[in-house]
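Example (one chain per record):
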Amino acid sequence: MASEHSAAAGAGQPSALVRFVQFVPLGAVAVVLLDSATDFFPDDPLAGILTPTRLALLLGVIALVVPVRGRPRARLRDFRTRLDLPIGLLVAVSAATTYRGGHPTAPLRGLLTVIACHYLVVAVRRTRPESWGAIGLLALTGVAAAATSAFSQVTNETPTGFCRTGLLTDVACDAAGDGALIRATGTFANPNLLAAFLVLFLPFALLATVCVDERTARTAVVVLVVIGYGALLTTFSRAGYVAGAAGLLVLGGAYWLASRIADRAQRRLFAALGTLALLGAAGAIWAVSRAGNSLGVRGQAWEAALRLAADNPLGVGLGRSGAAISATAPGGRTFVHAHNLWLNWLVEAGPLGLLSITAVAVIAVIAVSCAARAARAKSVIGTVGLAALTGFFLMSMMDHPANLDRIDALLWCALAVVMAETPATWRNRTGTSLSPRPRSNAPATAPSASAPPGRRRERRESRGQPAPQVLLRSSPLTTFPLAFRGSSLTNSTIRGTL
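Predicted structure:
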C-alpha cells in the first residue's frame, strides 16, 4: 500500500527537478530584494564583473527560459510590459552617452543589472501568479530588518553621524550637545535612503497580511508594519515624512474612503482636500525646519543642473552628475547628485534620458492607477503599488535616493510588480488584469473539453494577457481590508471556494 500511495502522489505532483527549477527564479528574486534591503552580499565581484547579485539574476533567468519536462518555460510574452519602449530608449541613450564620452562603463552595467532584475520579477509574476504572497513576505522581512536596526540606533544612542534639532534643522552632532536628535540610518548609510526604502516598501509589506489566516499571526504582521512606519519617524527626514503621509493618504483613501463615496464629484472633492492638507503639512514642516537654507542648497544644485543640461545635450555621463554639479555650482559645496530624480537624468543622459525616465514614471502611475481605480474591486496590488510609487516619486522631487544601486534595484522591482498586473499592450484592456476583481455569485464553469486549457491560455498570453482562471485563484482578494477588521472570512476559505 505504501508503494501504491507514493506512486499515486508522484503521478499527481511535479518531480523534484521541476520543483527545484520553479524555486530558482523566485529564490533569485528573494536574494536580490533582501540584499537590497540589508546589503548582506559583499560589493566585490566574484570574477570579472560577475557580482553575487548578477549571478543570482543569471541563474533565475536561465531557470525561467530553459525547457524542463513537466514545466512550461517562460516565453518572450511573459517578459513584455508597457515599459518596454521607454526602457529600450533609456538603455540606448545611456549606452550612447557612455561610449561617446568615453566614460567608465560601471554605471551602465549597474543600469542593465537593475533592468534585468525588473524583467525577472515580471516573468516570475506572470509565470507564477501566486508569487504575490512571497513578494509581500519578502517586503515585510526587509522592512523588519531595516526598521529594527533603526530603532536600535535610536534607543541605544548609537552615533550615525547625522543629527537634527527639534525643529528638524541639520546640526553637527558634536556641537549640538544633549539637544541633538540622532537620525537613524538602519541598514543604509544615510537617513534619507532609509526613509526612501521605507516609503517604497512599507505598502508592499501590507500584502503579508493576506498571506496569514490566523488572527494573532495577522496581528504580528500589522505590528511589524507599524514598527516600520515608526522607523520612518526616526529618520527625521522632511521629504520622507511628506512622502510617507502621501502614501498613507492614497492607501487609506483607496480602501476605506473611495468605496464609500459613490459620486465622482465627491471623490474629486475629497482628493482635492487631501492634497491641500498634504501640501499644508509639507509647508508647515519646511517652515518649522527653516527650509529656506535647505531649498537654497537644492536651488544651487538645480540651477547648476539646468546649466549643465544646456551645455551638454547628450549628458555628462552616468554617475557623473555629482562631480559636474559640484564643479559648476558656486560656493565649493560637494554634491553627490542633483537632488531630483528627473533633473539628475537630464544632466547625465540629456533630454532623451529625461524623456525616457519620465515616460517610465508616467506609464507606471497610469497603469497602477487604473488597477486601483476600481474601489469596489479592492485591487490590493494596484492600491499598494499606487501608494508606494506616489510616495517615492514625491520624495524624488526633493532628493534622488535611486542614485544608490540598492534603492534603484528596489524601485525597478516595485515597477515590475505593478506592471506585471497589466497587459503588455494598450489594446484589449478588459479581462486582462492580474489584480483582484469582484466576486460573482454565479458558479464557475468547467473548461470546455473541446478547447484544451493550455491552448486557450496560449491564445490569451500571446497578447500579453494572463489566463483569468489561474489569476483568480492566486491573486490577493477582497480579504485585505477585512483582515484589519478581524473578519472570519479568511484567504484560505476564499481560495477553497474558487
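Caption: The mean pLDDT is 77.
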